[in-house]
């Protein structure tokens, strides 16, 4: 798992350096067979150490390493809902978090398809109702939403994205943040939207 550990550290530092998550927020995991490598609790994505990543089984049982992120239920339930996914990225990026605080969002798809890249990399974005971070019920809600999407927005919280690879999940997280930024820029002005392919 050395390569996966290195990839988590590298992507975590990149996300932190580009201010896509701040302080000690956000978490990343990679599924390798029947094991999950996940970032530790209370750790900045900008200061990860490969040997300190936590190792869980697919039920969330802590097997080795540091204490896992308290958001581990989000990751475990996402892998259950999306067995083809091998990476999960959860961020508190500013624009996505801002959109997640707006009232009146469409819970079935809370970010409109404003660009072709949003359609290609993010897709539909269900809104998961607010629950405290680390609440196992939040993980269950994310799992339900992820059964029909690979991207969700957590109300008053942030984003969760799954991918077949870590690079794919990170790309989708960046694109979701960019769509949220564009949405906030256009404000109440009328917009045209890209249509989803059937």
Describe this entry's structure for a reader:
The protein has 198 residues and is α+β, with helices and mostly antiparallel strands. The protein contains 6 helices and 8 strands. It has helices at 2-17, 72-81, 94-100, 116-121, 136-146, 166-186, and strands at residues 27-32, 35-38, 54-57, 62-64, 87-91, 127-128, 151-154, 158-163. An 8-stranded mixed beta sheet has the order 4-3-2-1-5-8-7-6, with helices on both faces. A hairpin with a 4-residue loop joins β3 and β4. The longest helix has 21 residues, at 166-186. Residues 6-184 form the Class II aldolase/adducin N-terminal domain. Its cofactor is Zn(2+). Catalyzes the decarboxylation of 3-oxo-tetronate 4-phosphate to dihydroxyacetone phosphate (DHAP) and CO(2).
Brief digest:
This is 3-oxo-tetronate 4-phosphate decarboxylase. With 198 residues, this protein is α+β, with helices and mostly antiparallel strands. 36% of the residues lie in helices and 17% in strands.
